[in-house]
Amino acid sequence: APAAPAGIEAMHALDPVVWPSTAVRSGGDALEQRAVTIAGIDIRDLVAEHLSHVRRPWGFKDPRTCRLLPLWGEILEELDVSPRFVWAVRHPAESSVSMSLKNPLLRPLSVPQSEVMWLAYNYDILRYVGRHWPIIVPYDAWFDDAMGLASELGRELDLIWKGSDDELDSALTALIHREHRHHWVKEQKLRCSVGH
Which of 19-23, 123-127, 138-142 comes out lowest in average pLDDT? Predict the structure, then answer.
C-alpha cells in the first residue's frame, strides 16, 4: 500500500530503535514537529493522489499505523475521508516473542521491551482512534476460519465480494500462511514452532 512507507519513515525519523511511548501528534519539539510535518505531507499527498484515481474501498496494513493515529486523523479529516479501522488483536505473549525475534540485528528488542511496545501500540489505538471505533478481530481467527472472518468483515464494512467462494478462499490462502505463525498461546502456555 502506498501510504505505509511514509509512515514508516516518520517513525524512523522520530526514533530509529524504539518508538516514542506516546503516539505521534502534531505538537512537540522542533525536530519532532519537522519529522511529523514532512511525514504528514508525504502521507497526505500519497493518499490524495491515490484516492483521486480509485472508486472503490482502499486500505493498507501496517501495525505501526497505530503510533500515527493522531496524524492520520488530521490527514483523513482534511481529505474528508471517514476511515474504517480493523484492529486485529494478538495475545501479548505471542506478539512480544514474535517482535523480539523479528529483526534482532537491526532492531534488537528483549521480550519485556516487546511487551511494553505491544502495550503502547494497543493503548495508542484505544487513546487515539476517536469517533471511528474499530472493528475488533482476534488475530487467531485468520488462521482458524479465514473464510468466516472475511465474510463477517465484508458484512461489517459493507463490502461486496463479486467473485465465487472458491475465488475468495484462493485469495485468502495466498495471503494467510499457517507456517508463518511461529508463536501461539494454547492452554495458557506459549508454544513456539521455531527452534531457539
Answer: 19-23
pLDDT at residue 101 tops 70: yes
Contacts of 61 (CB under 8 A, 6+ apart): 1, 4
Mean pLDDT, residues 73-100 = 88
**Exposed e or buried b per residue across 61-89, where buried means at least 16 C-beta atoms within 10 angstroms of its C-beta:** eeeebbbbbbbbbbbbeeeeeeebbeebe
* Stretch 25-51: mean pLDDT: 64
Cβ neighbour number for residue 117 with a 10 Å cutoff: 21
Q: What residues pair up with 191 in beta bridges, in sequence order?
A: 184
pLDDT at position 71, please? Answer: 83
User: 134-141 — which CB contacts under 8 Å span 24+ positions?
Assistant: 134/85, 134/86, 134/87, 135/84, 135/85, 135/86, 135/87, 136/87, 136/89, 137/86, 137/87, 137/88, 137/89, 138/88, 138/89, 138/90, 139/88, 139/89, 139/90, 139/91, 139/94, 140/90, 140/91, 140/184
122 within 8 A of 66, measured Cβ to Cβ: yes
Q: How confident is the model at residue 97 (pLDDT cuts 50, 70, 90)?
A: confident
